[in-house]
């Protein structure tokens, strides 16, 4: 276990030296505060608290931004070390290859978790101080936690890419492709499929499976369909009522999305010829 924490600590120090932690935290805080004070106007029409509506806004922001940040953190974690020759040096020490993968993952996840918690937490604190109420704070805290889970998913996917390919440029291109697929293309294709099908073939159970095949959709359903009155504002009320996806199923799906790519990355690095 000590090897894991040593490697994780190195990644955190690298993040501090490269200004990753500061830049990511400031970016998330700035966007969260902007959405908090400029995006909560609809509360009077949907009967939801400002915190609940802010959850909707930040959940939408998270789907676009957090996966991109996670992939940029992770895409060259292995292949970059290989290109610089530092991976060979690291493996010359008594450390297993899977420990390298897990340790680096924990370090990058710590960076992302800190930036997300502080950035979004600043918005929650500002809103509570100005609004004078903590209604919806539990939902807000759950959104922060699941945002970190979503980030962990894409860090894990980034590690799988980095462990498989042998060129940093290719790894970067694949990372952007993965982001486009899960964040933009998948939902547009799913929507088109539902429009064309008109309920003839795709059942509710099949739709649930299709949603679980995209971690961004699992995150979206988990947060937006459970935000009380704000779910109407998010357009998720019908999905919340009809989908058979409980929070336990959605959280399990996100956990599997973390474990499977990370396990694949450890396996790929273990078989890689250095």
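^ Assign residues to that structure.
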């Amino acid at each position: 276990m000590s090897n894991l924490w040593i490697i994780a600590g190195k990644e955190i120090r690298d993040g501090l030296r490269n200004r990753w932690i500061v830049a990511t935290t400031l970016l998330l805080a700035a966007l969260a505060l902007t959405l908090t004070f400029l995006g909560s106007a609809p509360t009077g029409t949907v009967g939801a608290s400002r915190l609940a509506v802010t959850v909707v806004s930040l959940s939408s922001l998270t789907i676009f931004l957090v996966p991109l940040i996670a992939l940029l953190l992770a895409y060259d974690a292995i292949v970059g070390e290989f290109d610089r020759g530092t991976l060979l040096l690291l493996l010359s020490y008594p450390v297993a290859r899977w420990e390298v993968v897990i340790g680096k993952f924990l370090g990058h996840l710590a960076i992302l978790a800190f930036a997300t918690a502080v950035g979004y937490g600043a918005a929650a604190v500002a809103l509570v101080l100005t609004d004078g109420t903590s209604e919806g704070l539990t939902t807000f805290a759950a959104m922060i936690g699941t945002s970190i889970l979503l980030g962990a998913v894409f860090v894990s996917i980034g590690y799988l890419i980095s462990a498989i390919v042998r060129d940093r440029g290719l790894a970067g291109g694949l990372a952007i492709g993965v982001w486009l697929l899960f964040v933009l293309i998948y939902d547009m294709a799913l929507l088109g499929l539902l429009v064309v099908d008109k309920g003839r073939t795709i059942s509710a159970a099949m739709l649930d499976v299709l949603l679980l095949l995209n971690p961004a959709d699992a995150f979206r359903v988990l947060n937006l369909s459970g935000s009380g009155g704000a779910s109407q504002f998010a357009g998720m009320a019908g999905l919340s009522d009809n989908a058979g996806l409980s929070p336990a199923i959605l959280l399990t799906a996100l956990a599997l999305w973390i474990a499977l790519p990370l396990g694949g990355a450890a396996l790929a690095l273990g078989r890689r010829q250095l």
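The chain has 14 helices and no strands.
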